[in-house]
Amino acid sequence: MIWDPLNLGPFLGHIILWFFNLTGSYGVAIILLTFLIKILMFPFVIKNQKSMAGSMRYSEKQKEIRNRYKNDRKKLNEELLNLSQKEQVNMFGGCLPTIFPLIVFLAMSSTVTFPLSNILHIDKQKIEESSKIVSSQENGNEKRESQYYNQIKVIKLFSKNKDKFSMFDEEESQRIQDISRSFSILGTDLLATPKDNLFEGLLWAVPLLSFLISAADYYFSQKLRQVPMRDNQGFSKFALYLPLLLGAWFAYSYPAAVGFYYIVVKIIDLLQRFVIEKFYGIYLINAKKEVARILRRISEEKKTKRIVS
C-alpha cells in the first residue's frame, strides 16, 4: 500500500494538471513540478549547509577544549557550556531538507498511482464504479493487484471501451483521454509499470537510470565534501548500497512516472550539489566565518587602542 502521510497527493495533482494545461505533456509537467519543489527547498538546503558547518565548527572546538582541560573537570564543563552558548548550534536545523523529499516522493507515488482522484479529481463514486468494471474482467492475482492500479487500468482501457464507462460525463471523458495520450515522455508510457512491461519502450531504462544516477549522486557527494571512500565490508557495504537498491526497486515496481520523478530529482540533486559546494561548501562557510571573526577581533583591538590613547 502507498503511504501519503500528509495527504499531499491531491495537492501535487493540482500542480501537475496546471503544468499539463500549460505544456500539453504530463512528463514535462512532472519535470516542472520537480524544479518548482527544488527552488522552494533551496533556501532550506543552504540553511542545512550552514547548520552542518556550525556542527563541524562546534565539534572541532569541543575537541580542542576537551584536550586542553582534560585534567580539570570543572573548567572543562564551564568552557563547554560557554562554547554551547556562544555557537548556538541547532542539531535539528537540517532535518527538513532530509525528511521533506521523502514525504514528497511518497505523495508523488500516490498521485500517479491514483490519477483519477489525485490529478483529475473525479468523484469518488464514479471511480469506484469504473474500478468494478475493471475488476470484473480480472481474476486471481490480477484482481488483488488492481486495488492499487485500477485507476491506471481505467485510463488504459477507456479509449477502446468508452461505452462501458458511461458514468463519466463528456468533460471527464475528454480529460481521461488526454491523460491516456499525454502521460508519456520519449514515447514511453509513464503510467506503465516496468515489472509488468519491462521492454515496452524505454521502461527498462527507468530502474537502471534510477540506480546509476543515485550511485553517481552518492559518489560525487563524497568526492565534493572530501570524504574518503571507504572499503566497507559485510553489513556496512550492504548498508551503503541499500538506498540505491531501494530506489531502483521503487522505480521497477511502481508506475514509471514514479521512477521518472526520482531520476529527475537525482539529476537536479547532482547539479545542485556542485552549485552548493562551490558557493556554500561547509569548509568555505567556516573559512568565511573565521575571516569575519578575525576582522571583528582586529576592529575591536583598534577601538581599544584608541580609547587607551
Please give the order of strands in the largest beta sheet.
1-2
Number of strands: 2
Q: Report low-confidence residues grouped into runs of 5 or more.
A: none
Shape: elongated
Q: What is the helical fraction, as a range of percent?
A: over 70%
Number of helices: 12
Span between N and C termini? 76 Å
Q: If you compute it from the alpha carbons, what radius of gyration comes out, rounded to the nearest whole angstrom?
A: 26 Å
Strand proportion, as a percent range, falls in under 5%
Structure description:
The chain has two domains: 255 residues, no CATH class; 45 residues, no CATH class. β1 and β2 form a beta hairpin. It starts with 8 loop residues before the first helix and ends with a helix. Strands 1-2 form a two-stranded antiparallel ribbon. The model has no long low-confidence stretch (mean pLDDT 83). The radius of gyration is 26 Å and the shape is elongated. It contains twelve helices and two strands. The chain is mainly alpha-helical.
Write the topology of this structure.
Layout: H1 9-23, H2 26-68, H3 73-87, H4 95-113, H5 115-118, H6 124-136, H7 140-158, H8 170-182, E1 184-185, E2 188-189, H9 205-224, H10 234-253, H11 256-280, H12 282-308
Antiparallel strand pairs: 1-2
How is this structure best summarized?
The chain is built from twelve helices and two strands.
